[in-house]
Design goal:
Elements: E1 35-41, E2 45-51, E3 57-63, H1 76-94, E4 105-108, E5 110-111, H2 114-117, E6 123-127, H3 133-136, H4 142-163, H5 177-187, H6 194-221, E7 231-233, E8 242-244, E9 251-255, E10 260-262, H7 264-284, H8 287-291, H9 297-308, H10 325-343, H11 349-362
Helix pairs in contact: 4-9, 5-6, 5-10, 6-10, 6-11, 7-9, 7-10, 10-11
């Protein structure tokens, strides 16, 4: 369901590598003016990447025909908080030496002009690269892998800074769109062809006990957090939103469309769930993940965790993660499976993904934290 990679060996808790030389695949050929260098997407979302010269790129995200809600910017108060977090990340990065710890900068989306996005509207992001970690991590290029590991460490630091901001804004907390899509699918309120076919299959493979567990976890994910209250969340962090600079000096995280408030476990678990899915797919020979060169996913996950955890928590690792991280990671696995069937289409590998979901649920999500 997602492309898979090659791995260069890195330490068990990876140190952040020095800025590497840039693989040729990351740098587009020079061009006069603006040129489209990549276009891809699903029935939910179409993405167009354009190069504007001088290491400047724009990522345009336009709703597809199955995307039924408008893309919206964060509330004004949340937007101010996001810009403050980004400024703090920039300040910390400016004082760091080459290869030192820093966070991924927040690339805040802007409403795209009608001339760019057409009638359906869209959001455009200004970033320093054309390729995300989703492509670099499994590329088979050692330098691209190291660039990805560093970017994941940056992502961990940025998520921790976001989660230090309490949701104390006047605006109500927006819904978590990923969990909302999952609940609509679970309830049968989104009867869409292959998505409905997958729902019947998953219900059969999970059985009543695990289907109830999945439902309960999804419902609980939308409830207001208890101790500590809601914090500022990215809402959908992933390797596809994480774009390293080809120079290797910093990374950016596309941010805005999914911003919400809630339990920090939702953000961190979202990325760990993605990495768990990729590792499991590679081990089982599923999709491109099972066909490509081997990838050291545990090292990638440990980089994320090393970035997220405070120095005093680093030895504790799992014990220091937000409670509920394993459940959130399991929900991410279910959401991606649902989205693939609904927005890409049926694939026979979905049967084995349903089995993976059943195993992960049965183990209370514990495999998602075993790195």
């Amino acid at each position: 369901m997602a492309d898979r990679p090659q791995a260069a060996p890195v330490p068990s808790v990876p140190s952040v590598p020095q800025a590497p030389a840039v693989p040729a695949a990351v740098q587009p050929a020079g061009a006069a003016g603006s040129v489209t260098v990549r276009e891809y997407g699903t029935r939910y979302l179409r993405i167009s990447v354009r190069y504007h010269g001088d290491a400047r790129f724009s990522w345009l995200r336009v709703p597809g025909p199955a995307h039924h809600r408008p893309q919206t910017a964060p509330s004004p108060a949340a937007g101010v908080a996001l810009r403050q977090v980004d400024a703090a990340i920039a300040d910390a990065g400016s004082g760091a030496g080459a290869g030192a710890g820093r966070g991924a900068r927040l690339a805040l989306g802007e409403r795209a002009a009608a001339s760019e996005s057409g009638e359906r509207g869209g959001v455009v992001y200004r970033v320093p690269g054309a390729v995300s970690v989703a492509r670099l991590l499994p590329s088979g290029d050692d330098t691209a892998y190291r660039l990805s590991v560093r970017a994941l460490a940056d992502l961990g630091r940025t998520l921790r800074q976001l989660h230090d901001v309490p949701w104390e804004f006047a605006e109500p907390v927006p819904p978590h769109h990923g969990v909302g899509r999952l609940l609509a699918w679970i309830s049968g309120a989104a009867p869409d062809g292959d998505g409905a076919r997958l729902r019947a299959l998953a219900h059969d493979r999970l059985g009543a006990r695990l289907w109830t567990r999945l439902t309960d976890w999804a419902v609980a994910a939308l409830e207001a957090p208890g101790r500590g209250g809601a914090v500022l969340l990215h809402g959908a962090p992933s390797t596809g939103w994480l774009v390293p600079s080809p120079a290797g000096d910093h990374s950016v995280l596309l941010t805005g469309e999914e911003v919400t408030g809630g339990d920090p476990a939702l953000d961190l678990g979202w990325v760990l769930g993605e990495l768990h899915e990729l590792r499991s797919a590679a081990a089982r020979g599923l999709g491109a993940a099972g066909q490509g060169p081997p990838v050291d996913y545990p090292a990638a996950a440990r980089a994320l965790l090393a970035g997220y955890l405070r120095k005093e928590d680093a030895a504790a690792t799992v014990e220091a993660l937000p409670p509920g991280t394993a459940r959130a990671a399991t929900l991410r696995l279910a959401v991606h499976m649902r989205d693939f069937a609904s927005f890409v289409g049926w694939h026979e590998d979905l049967r084995r993904y349903a089995d993976l979901l059943a195993e992960t649920l049965d183990a209370e999500g514990a495999p998602t934290l075993r790195w």
